[in-house]
UniProtKB/TrEMBL annotation:
The organism's place on the tree of life at top rank: Bacteria
A cellular component term, taken from the record's GO annotations: membrane
Species of the source: Collinsella acetigenes
Keywords (A to Z) from UniProt: ATP-binding, Nucleotide-binding, Translocase, Transport
Protein name, entry field: Phosphate ABC transporter ATP-binding protein
Keyword set includes Translocase: yes
């Protein structure tokens, strides 16, 4: 195995840790659906400028954990999340947390593109308007910046008043990312964002993630091991509700310590 110098590491987008600055951190998080204890004592930190991939077999708790990071599990009846979730050093897992404000800072992109039944323009401006942003020039600029950030501007700039549903699946997903970017989130959570997309659209979303990670933390749940190794700096492997191994992506994929991770990576189970 060839070793990688620290300057080489800094120059590489993925595979290696590049930042010590923690944006979001969980401490002994447990999640229950009724009596079912789905996630056990999970402690993980997410770093600025980095993409962290959550991997593991179906049903191991990846999405459950992801949804706990912006308190989305509160929308699920009977679901309980115990433990601390610290965003910028402040525990957000409290009854008084303002979910509306929180989700401005910790945005989420879902598996299926879910644009609103509105024009492309209104998809971007809907949430900012609700948060009090006013003025056509300001909103126009926000739309352009967000669509450029999501690498969609050139494709839609002449049809901003058209329905979002006139776009392809890959374009709809980039629109949903643009919508998230319009709120300038500190953290973006991606729940299998490419599973409904073709390979070209998948690579476009991966490029986009690399382009927008600067200044924020990204967390992605993916079943696609190549995607995890291509885009992420760090990877956490989940198995049956436990976070079993966590490290730099290069180590996780090249030198796994846990036998279950090794078996998973070599396709012994999926
Ligand atoms: N809304 C829910 N109500 C009840 N149980 C749930 C719910 N969502 C998930 N679970 C259970 O929690 C466990 C973890 O599921 P979760 O969806 O987080 O796993 P996952 O690793 O994301 O799976 P997949 O890769 O298939 O999406 C599973 O046993 C699942 O059945």
């Amino acid at each position: 195995m060839t070793s990688v110098s620290s300057s080489e590491k800094r120059n590489r987008v993925s595979g290696f840790a590049i930042s010590d600055e923690v944006v979001l951190e969980t401490k002994d998080v447990n999640v229950y659906y009724g009596n079912h204890h789905a996630l056990h004592d999970t402690s993980l930190a997410f770093h600025k400028d980095e993409i962290t991939a959550l991997i593991g077999p179906s049903g191991c708790g990846k999405s459950t954990f992801l949804r706990s990071l912006n308190l989305m599990n509160r929308e699920i009846r009977g679901c309980r999340v115990d433990g601390e979730i610290e965003y910028r050093g402040h525990n957000i897992n409290t009854p008084s947390e303002n979910l509306y404000e929180l989700r401005k800072s910790i945005g989420m992109v879902f598996q299926q593109p879910n644009p609103f039944h509105m024009s492309i323009y209104d998809n971007i401006t809907f949430a900012p308007r609700r948060h009090g942003v006013r003025g056509k020039d300001v909103l126009d600029q926000m739309v352009e910046e967000s669509l450029r950030g999501a690498a969609l501007w050139d494709e839609v700039k002449d049809k901003l008043d058209k329905s979002a549903f006139a776009l392809s699946g890959g374009q709809q997903q980039r629109l949903c990312i643009a919508r998230t970017l319009a709120m300038h989130p500190d953290v973006i959570l991606f729940d299998e964002p490419c599973s409904a997309l073709d390979p070209i659209s998948t690579l476009a979303i991966e490029d986009l993630m690399r382009n927008v990670v600067k200044g924020r933390a990204i967390v992605i749940v993916t079943h696609n091991m190549e995607q995890a190794s291509r885009v992420s700096n760090r990877t956490a492997f989940f198995y049956m509700g436990d976070m079993v191994e966590y490290g730099e992506t290069e180590q996780i994929f090249q030198r796994p310590n846990d036998a279950r991770l090794n078996d998973y990576l070599t396709g012994m189970f999926s």
